[in-house]
């Protein structure tokens, strides 16, 4: 993972070449300065103090798969935890081509004008060949990326269900500790496990394209069941009437959908991220929803449950990592998989054999 904030700092006037004054115009190559090692305490202080470079390094630390780094990351998150929890956490999703990045940039600039500090956790699809992240969000949100009130961090999804990076939750806490009071989590797109995003945010916003009558056929029922606000984007030019018609179709469709909160009727708004029309109204709807949850005490209760789900997700993930890395399991796994594929052994029996080997039975 590239540390964008540190790299940007390195690039500010720090050329890899320096002029040898004694030798006139001769250019002498010198190595770029090495980044000094920091204690967890120093990094935590830097994050809380709003140091963007140290925030970037802290996120890189929590994303690392190195065992030693993971222990340091746990300590870091624990230290900044008292400074977290005060932001608006908003998930943003939508079908490919709906204009998520354009919408987020438009909204982010608007929020800056309103006095907010915005962190965008843009989850990039990982390369199927290298496993690396495409990391295009900083170029797709160029204006927002250069704004003082904003911090954009692309992270590779690495095949995680729902298009959510494994460490998105930890990253969310870090940016909150750094003083960003609005956290927008942009997902890869509409997928089977978008509920993962809904379970880590306060409000889940789904962007839709004009022409929802046809599009409804391709929308996952599970997505609409966890959506808090719907917004039909690209409601501009000759598409305004179509967008309004689509919004009506969506309102009618939502009447037949089970709701996550029976006291909340999912609102449908129209907007244009290109012109900015209606984007403020979408934000007012989202913020109003979160403010109502906070004032009623529901938000605190929901976040406590989210924390417990996060804990169990980590337990399951680490158990699977331990199982796959176990030498005893490795000895028998290939044979058991072959027997299951050939039909010589039932999957249930193979699973029991793997677990018995893992637990030393």
TrEMBL record:
Q: Which domain of life is it from?
A: Bacteria
The EC number(s) given in the record are 3.6.-.-
Question: Got a GO cellular component term for this one?
Answer: cytoplasm
A GO molecular function term, named singly, is:
GTP binding
Any coiled-coil ranges, and where?
none
Q: Does the keyword Hydrolase apply?
A: yes
Q: What class of enzyme is it?
A: hydrolase
Q: Sorted alphabetically, which InterPro entries does this protein's record hold? A: GTPase_ArgK, P-loop_NTPase
| Keywords for this protein | Hydrolase
The record, for NCBIfam families, names: lao, PRK09435.1
Question: What's the protein here called?
Answer: Putative GTPase
Species of origin reads Mucisphaera calidilacus
Q: What is the lineage of its organism?
A: Bacteria, Pseudomonadati, Planctomycetota, Phycisphaerae, Phycisphaerales
């Amino acid at each position: 993972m590239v540390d964008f904030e540190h790299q940007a700092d390195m690039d500010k006037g720090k050329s890899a070449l320096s002029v040898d004054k004694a030798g006139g115009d001769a250019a002498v190559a010198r190595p770029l300065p090495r980044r000094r090692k920091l204690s967890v305490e120093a990094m935590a202080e830097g994050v809380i103090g709003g140091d963007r470079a140290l925030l970037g390094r802290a996120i890189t630390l929590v994303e690392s798969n190195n065992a030693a780094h993971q222990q340091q990351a746990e300590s870091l998150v624990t230290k900044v935890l008292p400074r977290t929890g005060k932001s608006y956490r908003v998930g943003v999703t939508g079908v490919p081509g709906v204009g998520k990045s354009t919408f987020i940039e438009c909204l982010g600039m608007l929020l800056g004008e309103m006095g907010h500090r915005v962190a965008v956790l843009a989850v990039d699809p990982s390369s199927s060949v290298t496993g690396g992240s495409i990391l295009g969000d900083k170029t797709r949100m160029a204006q927002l990326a250069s704004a003082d009130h904003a911090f954009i961090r692309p992270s590779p999804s690495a095949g995680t269900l729902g298009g959510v990076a494994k460490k998105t939750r930890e990253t969310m806490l870090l940016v909150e500790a750094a003083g960003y009071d609005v956290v927008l989590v942009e997902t890869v797109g509409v997928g089977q496990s978008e509920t993962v995003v809904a379970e880590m945010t306060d409000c889940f916003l789904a962007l839709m394209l004009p022409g929802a009558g046809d599009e409804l056929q391709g929308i996952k029922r599970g997505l609409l069941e966890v959506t808090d606000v719907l917004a039909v984007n690209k409601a501009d030019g000759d598409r305004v009437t179509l967008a309004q018609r689509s919004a009506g179709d969506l309102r009618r469709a939502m009447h037949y959908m089970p709701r996550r909160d029976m006291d909340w009727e999912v609102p449908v708004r129209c907007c244009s991220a290109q012109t900015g029309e209606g984007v403020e109204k979408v934000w007012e709807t989202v913020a109003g929803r979160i403010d109502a949850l906070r004032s009623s005490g529901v938000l605190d209760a929901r976040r406590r449950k989210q924390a417990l789900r996060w804990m169990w997700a980590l337990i399951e993930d680490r158990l699977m990592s331990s199982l796959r890395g176990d030498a005893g399991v490795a000895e028998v796994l290939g044979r058991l998989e072959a027997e299951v594929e050939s039909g010589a052994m039932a999957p249930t029996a193979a699973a029991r054999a793997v677990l018995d080997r893992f637990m030393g039975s």
